[in-house]
Amino acid sequence: MADTNELTITRYIDAPPETVWDVMVNRQEEWWCPKPWRAEFDVNERRPGGRNEVRMHGPEGEVHTHNGTYLAFDDGRRFVSTDAIQGDFEPADPFMVGIWEIAPEGNGTRYTARARHWTEDARKRHEDMGFAEGWGTCADQLQALCEQTTAET
């Protein structure tokens, strides 16, 4: 895939990788979409081939669903999903492959989220939808939760 079709957000999180991973997967609804929106995971089968179905609720009653399939779920390191396969391995109109990963860095953790798009047009649409602001806010929310959790321990 050409690099031009990938959008990326990264943050240094001042918390150990174990804490970041725990918050990423066990408190996902708290950081997954920018507040005041909220996320509800109806299905979240954390394994390769597992389904993920999330409803995002907006402050004005808006509801946006995003369903997909995990392509990888490497405990403590990364999860990867796509909206190109949904439900019981049914093909769907593909938009992207999402990759959320962490790696140790110094005394903390490097968090990186990538959106790889099938086409340049899809990448451009995602940029125009506010990728940098939206995914950046989610990264900030994750960072705050992780650093707060570390400070409390």
From TrEMBL:
Residues 14-146 form the Activator of Hsp90 ATPase homologue 1/2-like C-terminal domain. InterPro entries: ASHA1/2-like_C (IPR013538), START-like_dom_sf (IPR023393). Belongs to the AHA1 family. This is Uncharacterized protein YndB with AHSA1/START domain. It holds the Pfam family AHSA1.
